[in-house]
Amino acid sequence: MVFRYLITFMLALVSIPAFAQSIDDVINEALNPVSDFLFTVVFFKVPIFGGIPFVLISLVGCAVFFTFYLNFINFRGFKHALDLVRGKYADPTQKGEVSHFQALATALSGTVGLGNIGGVAAAISVGGPGATFWMILAGFLGMSSKFAECTLGVKYRNEYEDGRVSGGPMYYISKGFAEMGLGPIGKVIAAIFAVSCIGGALGGGNMYQANQAFKQFVGVTGGEASFFYDKGWLFGLILAAGVALVIIGGIRSIAKVTEKIVPFMAVLYLICGLIIIGMHYTHIPDAFGQIISGAFAPEGIAGGFVGVLIQGFQRAAFSNEAGIGSASIAHSAVRTSEPVSEGMVAVLEPFIDTVVICTVTALVIIISGAYDAGNGIEGISLTSAAFASVISWFPNVLALAAILFAFSTMIAWSYYGRKAWTYLLGETAMSELVYKMIFCSFTIIGCSASLGAVLNMSDALFFAMAFSNIIGLIVLRKVVHSELSVYWRRLKEHKITRA
User: Fold this and answer.
1) pTM (predicted TM-score)
2) pLDDT band at residue 367, thresholds of 50, 70 and 90?
């Protein structure tokens, strides 16, 4: 029944391409002022070192704070996190909907995306190889803020009689603040987060992913000669149908797909990257030399040492989403009664996303010399050129990886947006159906039109989540610290037993 409604709604949108340009003009004209205002507020630059976005300072500052406040949980909890993902402490009788591994896979599907392919290339294009060093460092630091937000996500989640759960920043901010006598303030901040999350899900988590996947697909199927070149609506319809098939089943259906897609696409991409690195193994020492020296060079491509540092931190923060709060929505669905256990699992997310995958991408680009070719290419095209410089058909593999990255990101963000939507409008079947219809329609629009104003506004809303979430994390920091201390003690006393 639900699937029939979704398909009927999407087929009604097939007429959009004929009017895509007029729709694009109308929407851009209406939303440009709003988009510009949001960008001005969210990406406000602090006038130091030539201007640093305040949202970046907030994200990195939060990560540094929790790294020290929690006594380097990003390193101390790493081995235990691996044990949890492997199911050594699993208890199928606990409340929740998915396993530790499935929760991690779903969260990773939301962060491991086109930013790992094109975002890294952009950082190196602007900041040089040295940006890689700061990306890696930011990835390690982000592990701590991910721990904090995902621990809170499980602790304050809603658990329903039918086995479903709902969690995330909107819940731990509203509930946690209420415990501290700050209920009204918490509700306002939680609502701001939810609105921002819906905007981020429809834009950056949906339209942008669909648009970039379409462009990469067209690029490897003939460019302007491709059958799909002027049929973005058709590609979008197919993609939307695939998304609809998955998201109808909720988090359990999403988890079943992501636990298969995420490992496959990550391994596929890493194997391709490692093959290129292996074929140029004699250049590896020089590549790391460029990364280290470039990170601390007094002069650099992006305005010297500070410019390179900013590029690295910015791309890492935007890639792994540590501090944004979105991933805690997926982690909250885990089957456990121990909030800290999922916080531990979450530390693996920035490590895999930024420290491993982004580093491999960076090494491929540096070793191939593609970034220094002076041909003006950037983003995903630069990564594609780096792969093609070794084996001509590698861009086809990259196209497959890009589509899988985009698809998995979209289904994960559909869940994030849905939870934010139902937090505001109620967890009813009709409310969820309306959201799913809207989400799938935005997939088609993302492929068939270039809606710059919408995407810019969505990106602003996406990073606006960070402000609400970081306020929540800082206010509830003692709760996180207390939960961790009790968990470590119980673990040492063997009160938390293995499966």
Assistant:
1) 0.83
2) confident
